[in-house]
Amino acid sequence: MKLGRMNHIGVATPDLDASIAFYRDVMGATDITEPFVLEEQKVRVCFVNTPNHSGGDAGGGTQVELLEPTTADSPVSGFLAKNPAGGQHHLCFEVEDIAAAREWFEGAGKRILGPTRIGAHGTPIFFVHPKDMNGILTEIMEVPQGAH
Ligand code: CO
């Protein structure tokens, strides 16, 4: 497998609107997407887009994915139970071929959490267990169509 670009850093938050205000007012973010609910993963999500270089236009840079649980049994609820203020939840890397990447990690004995499914970017994703990934919950995502 060939590692692709880091697509986003997932950040869990108990209050999405407060986190949006933080990135806008404290961090100076100027490109934050409208929140939407990802029913399947029981989260309300939005993206803070960072520019591809200092002073550059938005787009092309990486994103912070803000995640607020919508139910008590959301995967993010468990994280917030241990980290009530929220915090870094996962890293997401792009790959060209999601099926090949899944096979690669399975072949390496890494535990994959659930089926490959459509993620917040509308492309196939899966998660690899943090205990098999040096402590980091890792999302693998097929490159969005037209991204390259
Ligand atoms: Co993610």
Account of the protein in words:
There is one protein chain. The protein has 148 residues and is of the alpha+beta class. 19% of the residues lie in helices and 37% in strands. It has one domain (6-142): 2,3-Dihydroxybiphenyl 1,2-Dioxygenase, domain 1. It has an 8-stranded mixed beta sheet. The structure holds cobalt (II) ion. The site of cobalt (II) ion has 6 residues, from strand 1 and strand 5.
Residue-averaged pLDDT, rounded? 92
Distance between the termini: 18 Å
* Total discrete domains: 1
Strand order of the largest sheet: 2-3-4-1-5-8-7-6
Order of helices and strands: EHEEEHEHEEE
Give the helix level as a range of percent: 10-25%
Draw up the topology in text:
Elements: E1 6-12, H1 16-25, E2 36-38, E3 43-51, E4 60-69, H2 75-82, E5 87-95, H3 98-107, E6 112-118, E7 124-128, E8 138-142
Parallel strand pairs: 1-4, 5-8
Antiparallel strand pairs: 1-5, 2-3, 3-4, 6-7, 7-8
The protein binds cobalt (II) ion.
